[in-house]
């Protein structure tokens, strides 16, 4: 580690180039979280795969990335952060090219798994690098820049993926990573200096095995549960048992072994421990709301795919605005205040959504989306600053890896939990509404209702059932929005467990210089 008030000015140009390259690597990885989803039907047709088989292209990537996230800290200590960064960028870029050339389902599933293996470290390493090359008093701005890369990728993914697939080929969804990978690799090769600790701890093979088993089974459970009827399927029960066993063995191993995969002392930092819970909750909110809105607008409101995409875009704009403002304010005021404001804004937008009906006008929806995105930006950036403010620099790589893992698990659980709740609520409300439909219900005997939903003829029964299902789904979505509202409000008490950072203006340590 070099100290550097004296050398700080000399390193500013290098720091700028490193920042650009780090953000390109981050953008490359986050872009692939959503860009492939749009092209999935085209990949399925091109490779002659069934709907169930083609989902393995997503599952392989998610599971591989989840398994390879925890050991990032050890690998970085073993071979050096710069070397790991370069290997990850090169491997991810090559794997992307291989995905684009895949001719069979087996090939693309294998190459997507390789993408996950190499891509797992890109986001944690980029965050660690940004925290190290900027002094503590600039961490707010540094994290706002980093968050922009994390946010912009998933926002641009569907639009860029749809354009490339429609006007070129689904293969260009993967080829787009080539220029980003080359620029990021070349820049870090020239400008980033590598340092590693003098000693490297032994690799915890037992911890890696049991945690990998737990995380992989959890991801498989969440990814395949909906299509396999959850715990009505033996496959899902097996995943659940192995997941619980893996986490249990990992916790026991963590407290009893000498050299462990995740340093136990990292949880002694109160800010970081509370931040892990908060980033999990934020992860649930980030993707679940957008995942709910897309089918809500298309299925219930009858809007086109293009119109839905335009209506969802303001959320990303709001997030970017919130990230920029929060990044500047995080260096000047207590980040906990910013987070509290952001949580309350999110909660208010979710409260409004509990009163929505499918005829919601575009203006109200856009204002709500911008507000919700702004609130997420106000939470996400200060959270990164606060969680790592008191964490020892030597633990940052392990810390960012854990943050990335918990955020991704939150994303998966948020989508799955809201999906299950929607399905269950829709079925329950369908039964409740259906119980009120009898030959003696006078509301069904009026002229309009009688001709549209005549229970005597098959077409009338089908139309009536469709309307009952629609009304039940509306209530189901409201229940989901209420659930997310509760999740957002539960974040507030955790702020009391965190302490405001104390920045030093001199003697700043710049680890990457």
Question: Which descriptor suits the 3D outline?
Answer: globular
Name of the top-level CATH class of the largest domain: Mainly Alpha
The N- to C-terminal Cα distance equals 8 Å
In percent, how helical is the residue content?
Answer: over 70%
* Major sheet description: 2 strands, antiparallel
Second-tier CATH architecture of the largest domain: Up-down Bundle
Order of helices and strands: EHHHHHHHHHHHHHHHHHHHHE
Question: The CATH topology of the largest domain is what?
Answer: Growth Hormone, Chain: A
Radius of gyration equals 24 Å
Q: What does this protein structure show overall?
A:
75% of the residues lie in helices and 1% in strands. The protein starts with a strand and ends with a strand. It folds into 3 domains: 1-203, MFS general substrate transporter like domains (Growth Hormone, Chain: A, Up-down Bundle), CATH 1.20.1250; 204-260; 266-501, Up-down Bundle (Growth Hormone, Chain: A), CATH 1.20.1250.20. The chain has helices at 5-31, 35-46, 51-54, 56-68, 72-79, 81-101, 105-119, 122-133, 139-167, 172-175, 177-191, 205-224, 234-256, 270-300, 305-330, 335-353, 362-387, 396-435, 447-452, 458-489; strands at 2-3, 509-510. A two-stranded antiparallel sheet has the order 1-2.
């Amino acid at each position: 580690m070099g100290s550097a008030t004296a050398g700080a000015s000399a390193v500013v140009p290098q720091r700028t180039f490193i920042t650009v390259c780090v953000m390109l690597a981050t953008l490359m990885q986050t872009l692939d979280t959503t860009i492939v989803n749009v092209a999935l039907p085209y990949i399925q047709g091109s490779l002659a795969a069934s709907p169930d088989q083609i989902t393995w292209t997503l599952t392989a990537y998610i599971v591989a990335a989840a398994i390879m996230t925890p050991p990032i800290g050890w690998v970085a200590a073993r071979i050096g952060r710069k070397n790991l960064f370069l290997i990850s960028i090169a491997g991810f870029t090559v794997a992307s090219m291989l995905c684009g050339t895949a001719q069979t389902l087996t090939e693309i599933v294998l190459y997507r798994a390789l993408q996950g293996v190499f891509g797992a470290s890109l986001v944690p390493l980029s965050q660690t690098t940004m925290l190290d090359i900027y002094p503590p008093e600039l961490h707010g701005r540094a994290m706002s820049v980093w968050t922009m890369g994390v946010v912009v990728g998933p926002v641009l993914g569907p639009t860029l993926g749809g354009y490339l697939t429609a006007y070129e080929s689904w293969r260009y969804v993967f080829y787009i990573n080539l220029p980003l990978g080359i620029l990021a690799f070349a820049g870090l090769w020239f400008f980033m200096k590598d340092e590693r600790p003098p000693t490297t701890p032994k690799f915890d093979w037992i911890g890696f095995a049991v945690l990998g088993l737990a995380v992989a089974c959890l991801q498989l459970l969440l990814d395949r549960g909906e299509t396999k009827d959850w715990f009505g399927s033996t496959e899902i029960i097996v995943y659940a048992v192995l997941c619980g066993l893996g986490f249990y063995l990992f916790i026991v191993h963590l407290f009893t072994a000498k050299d462990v995969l995740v340093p136990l002392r990292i949880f002694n930092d109160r800010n970081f421990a509370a931040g892990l819970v908060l980033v999990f909750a934020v992860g649930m909110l980030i993707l679940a709301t957008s995942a709910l809105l897309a089918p809500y607008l298309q299925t219930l409101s009858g809007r086109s795919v293009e119109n839905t995409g335009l209506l969802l875009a303001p959320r990303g704009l709001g997030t970017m605005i919130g990230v920029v403002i929060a990044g500047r304010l995080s260096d000047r005021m207590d980040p906990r205040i910013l987070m509290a404001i952001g949580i309350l804004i999110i909660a208010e937008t979710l409260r409004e959504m509990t009163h929505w009906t499918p005829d919601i006008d575009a203006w109200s929806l856009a204002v709500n989306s911008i507000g919700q995105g702004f609130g997420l930006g106000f939470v996400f950036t200060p959270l990164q600053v606060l969680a790592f403010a008191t964490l020892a620099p030597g633990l940052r790589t392990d810390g960012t890896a854990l943050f990335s893992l918990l955020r991704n698990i939150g994303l998966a659980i948020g989508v799955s939990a809201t999906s299950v709740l929607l399905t269950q609520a829709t079925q329950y409300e369908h039964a409740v509404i259906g119980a009120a439909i009898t030959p003696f219900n006078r509301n069904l005997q009026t002229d309009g209702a009688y001709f549209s939903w005549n229970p005597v003829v098959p077409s009338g029964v089908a139309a009536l059932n469709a309307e009952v299902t629609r009304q039940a789904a509306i209530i189901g979505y409201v229940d989901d929005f209420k659930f997310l509202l509760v999740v957002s409000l539960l974040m507030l008490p955790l702020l009391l467990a965190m302490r405001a950072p104390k920045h030093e203006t001199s003697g700043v340590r710049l680890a990457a210089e």
